[in-house]
Design goal:
- The chain is α/β, with parallel strands linked by helices and about 350 residues long.
- The chain folds into three domains: about 5-55, no CATH class; about 110-185, 60s Ribosomal Protein L30, Chain: A; about 190-349, 3-Layer(aba) Sandwich (Alpha/beta knot).
- About 25% of the residues lie in helices and about 20% in strands.
- It has ten helices and 16 strands.
- Helix 6 runs parallel beside helix 7 and helix 6 (about 215-225) runs parallel beside helix 10 (about 335-349).
- The radius of gyration is 34 Å and the shape is elongated.
- It starts with a helix and ends with a helix.
Length: about 350
């Protein structure tokens, strides 16, 4: 056993009460709880109730006096001053409190992981105060030189790690050598969004219903950001915090407002009351539903596009226009994110 282990063990002293009349027990006659050769079991004698145990633990921490550095003035007197090294304390100039559990990198409620080059650069551009920590490989440090300099000024942590370690953190191989721990965004209600954008003449909102695949959702958000969509409405806005969705969106998540809606039918009625033209995009052509082709639509200045993976008749009946993209015998329908991009392209024109 090494000396460090011996020093860390507590020292125990047994002190006898002075009034105790029991004779001193010799070490040679020490009784044990084991059986002897003649199979007679000897019981340990009970300690006297007047006995007491005093435990003294060695102090491993340095005293506050030892943590201070000293300078000597002209009168040779020692003056204690606090060490002003920036690496002694991690101070945050923003109001964030890190809640991400680093034991196994478990995700908690207020934080999420963002990875891939474009996604992390978008967070730094639009929402840098939400950054908590950076994990990056040595090869990617040059690409994020500005971000690292900002983290050093803000005294926020960053670790240069291997690609395998980032893979363990993100649980994917498609991390691009960089990963950020960031605060999740706070979603708006539809009423708040409409109040914030009441002065805009042109506006476009995507109402995404029942699209839970993170890759499809990321493709939708990427197309929305590309064509200047201002808001994305979902029932579960936490889907936008998915690392896979943000990676596929290539930073587009940071360019659109997140709108939470528990009742899509009521939200669509509210959009219509505020002058929005509601267009429902069918994932495929359905004979029982009257729909228009894309070239037949005249778009208004304010448009809300309703998108769904599975057809929802309540939403279709609430829309002003129902549209579908006509395919052919070889391919009757497009992927939902691709079809949305085609519709937004015509709307943008």
């Amino acid at each position: 056993m090494n000396n460090n282990t011996e020093k860390s063990k507590p020292t125990i002293f047994y002190a006898k009460n002075s009034e105790s009349k029991k004779p001193f027990r010799s070490a040679t006659k020490k009784t044990t709880g084991w059986k002897s050769k003649d199979d007679s079991f000897q019981v340990k004698p009970k300690r006297d109730r007047h006995d007491r145990i005093e435990t003294f633990k060695p102090r491993n921490d340095k005293s506050a006096f030892a943590k201070k550095s000293f300078i000597v003035d002209l009168n040779q007197s020692k003056l204690p001053i606090e060490n002003e090294s920036p690496w002694q304390k991690k101070l945050r100039t923003n109001e964030q409190t890190p809640t991400f559990g680093y034991d196994g990198y478990r995700q908690r409620k207020e934080e999420t992981l963002v990875y891939s080059e474009n996604s992390c650069k978008a967070v730094f551009k639009h929402r840098r105060t939400a950054i908590v920590k950076l994990f990056i490989t040595q090869e990617m440090t040059y690409q994020f030189k500005e971000l690292i300099e900002w983290l050093v000024k803000q005294r926020l942590g960053y670790d240069v790690v291997s690609s395998e370690q980032i893979g363990k953190i993100t649980q994917t191989q498609h991390h691009g050598g960089v990963c950020l721990i960031v605060k999740k965004r706070i979603s708006l209600t539809l009423l708040d969004y409409l109040e914030n954008n009441s002065d805009k003449d042109h506006d476009c909102v995507l109402a995404i219903d029942d699209v839970n695949n993170p890759h499809n959702l990321g493709g939708l958000i990427r197309s929305a950001a590309f064509y200047g969509v201002n808001g994305v409405m979902l029932r579960q806005t936490n889907l936008l915090d998915s690392g896979a969705a943000m990676r596929v969106a290539e930073g587009g998540v940071e360019a659109v407002e997140s709108i939470k809606s528990d009742d899509f039918v009521a939200s669509i009625d509210m959009l219509k009351q505020h002058g929005y033209q509601v267009i429902a995009l069918l994932p495929c052509q359905v004979k029982s539903i009257t729909s228009s082709e894309l070239h037949q639509i005249h778009f208004n200045k304010k448009v809300a596009v309703v998108i769904f993976q599975q057809i929802n008749m309540k939403l279709i009946n609430s829309a002003n226009i129902v549209v579908h993209l006509k395919g052919n015998d070889n391919m009757p329908a497009l992927n939902i994110s691709v079809a949305t991009g085609v519709l937004l392209s015509n709307l943008h024109k």
